[in-house]
Design brief:
The protein contains five helices and no strands. The protein is mainly alpha-helical and about 90 residues long. The longest helix is centred in the first third of the chain and has 17 residues, at about 10-25.
């Protein structure tokens, strides 16, 4: 929902979803990939990349799927050199 809101020019609502995700994440497991998707859709590249690295370190099961293309989850990060470096470390 946060991604859809961000991409629909409803950034304030997307940020509210992001805040809630962070609150839940502080109490338990929320995939860093889910939070990274909202950050990326909001244009927060650095935060999204930090969360993707966190997901890789935590063994998030969706991180390896980035090998097959970033655009389906993170169109804003497609072709980003830092994402490409992250993907290279997965091999």
């Amino acid at each position: 929902l946060g991604v859809a809101l961000a991409r629909s020019d409803r950034a304030d609502e997307a940020r509210a979803i992001l805040k809630r995700l962070e609150e839940v994440r502080a109490e338990g497991w929320v995939s860093p990939v889910d939070v990274a998707r909202v950050e990326s859709a909001l244009g927060n590249r650095d935060a999204a990349l930090r969360l993707l690295r966190t997901g890789a370190e935590a063994g998030d099961f969706r991180i390896p799927s980035l090998r097959y293309g970033v655009g389906h989850l993170f169109p804003e990060l497609e072709g980003d050199p830092e994402v490409e470096r992250l993907i290279e470390t997965l091999d």
